[in-house]
Amino acid sequence: MAPEERADAARLLWGFERRFLAARALRSFPWQSLEEKLRDSSGSELLLDILQKTVKHPLCVKHPPSVKYSRSFLSELIRKHEAVHTEPSDELYQALAEVLTAEEPTHCHRSYLLPSGDSVTLCESTAIVSHGTTGLVTWNAALYLAEWAVENPAVFTHRTALELGSGAGLTGLAICKTCRPRAYVFSDCHSRVLEQLRGNVLLNGFSLEPSIDAWAQHPGPHTPEAERPRVAVAQLDWDTVTAPQLAAFQPDVILAADVLYGPETVLSLVGVLRKLSTCRKDQRAPDAYVAFTIRNPETCQLFTTELGWAGIPWEEVPRHNQKLFPYEEHSEMAILKLTL
Ligand SMILES: C[S@@+](CC[C@H](N)C(=O)[O-])C[C@H]1O[C@@H](n2cnc3c(N)ncnc32)[C@H](O)[C@@H]1O
C-alpha cells in the first residue's frame, strides 16, 4: 500500500473507532469512504481492521455499547461488504451471531479517546431522559468543555475544581486524566445521577474520598507532585446548599456544562454562583467556567442578565474547534468565564 493510501486507511479507521466507542449515530460514520475503499483489493482486510477497532476493541469488549447499537452497526458493515464482495465474511457473521445472542441491559457504555492515549469510559442510560433527569447521559457542552480543558490544563493543574451538575462525569474525568488537578469534586442533586457518577469515577480507576464532610474539614495533606487527584462526589443542590458548605470544598475553579436549559435552572445556577462568590481561598474567589449549547438565545440572555444583577462579570472564552470528541450533531456552543 502506498504511504498516502495507508494514511487514508488510518484516517478511516480512526473515524470508525472514535464514533463507535462513543456510540454515535450510524449515519455519522464515514460509510462513503469505506465503500470507495472496499472496491479496492485491500477492502476485506480493511473490514477486519474496522472490526478490531470497533466491536472487538478491547474497550468495547470490556465495557460494551448497547446490544442494539452493535447489532445495527454490524448489519450495516455486512451490507457494505456484500455490496462489493460475493463471498460472505465469516468474521463479520461470527461477530453478529455473538451480539444476536447477547441480552440488552438498561445501561450502555461510551468511551472517549484522549490525546494522551488514555480514555474515559462512562456507563450511561440508553434513554436521553430517564428517571426524571437529563443527567444520566453526556451532553455536547460537556464534550466541548472537556476539549477546552484538555487544551488549557494550566487552569486546573494543582488546583481544586468543583463541578456543578456533573451528570455522567465526562468533563471531570477527562480533566482528572489529563490536567493534573489537585482535587476534583463532582456534584449533582439527583440520587440516580450521583449513583451512576460514583460508578463512573470508579470505572475510570479513581478512588472516592469516603466522606465528603471529613474531607472538606481536612483537605490536606496533598503534595502538588501527586499524579492522582483526590476525587469526591458530593450531593449538592444549588437551591439548598449554603455558602459555608460550598466554602468547605475550598475550590479554586468552578465548572458547569449544559446546565442552562430553562429559566428556573438559570435562576438556581446564578443563586449558587452568588453563594460561591463569597468563598475565598487565599483571599481570592474562584474562577468559574460555564459551558452551554445555544439552544434558546433567550435562556442565554437571561443568564447574562441575571449575572449582571448579581454583580458577576463575565467574558466569553474564545471559541475552539478542537473536535477531539465525536459530536452527535452540530450545535453552537459557548463557554463563559465568570469572575466571582
Ligand atoms: C443536562 S444535564 C448535564 C450533565 C453534564 N454536565 C453534561 O453536560 O453532560 C444537567 C445536570 O444538572 C443537574 N441539575 C439540575 N438542576 C440542579 C440543581 N438545582 N442542583 C444540582 N444539580 C442540578 C441535573 O441533575 C443534571 O445532572
Automatic annotation (TrEMBL):
Highest taxon of the lineage: Eukaryota
Methyltransferase keyword on record: yes
GO cellular component, one term: protein-containing complex
Biological process terms in GO annotation: methylation
Gene Ontology MF terms in the entry: methyltransferase activity
InterPro entries reported for this sequence: FAM86_N, Methyltransf_16, SAM-dependent_MTases_sf
Keywords: Methyltransferase, S-adenosyl-L-methionine, Transferase
Gene3D superfamilies per record: Vaccinia Virus protein VP39
SUPFAM superfamilies according to UniProt: S-adenosyl-L-methionine-dependent methyltransferases
Annotated ranges, domain FAM86 N-terminal: 11-99
Coiled-coil boundaries: none
Similarity section: Belongs to the class I-like SAM-binding methyltransferase superfamily. EEF2KMT family.
Protein name: FAM86 N-terminal domain-containing protein
High-level lineage: Eukaryota, Metazoa, Chordata, Craniata, Vertebrata
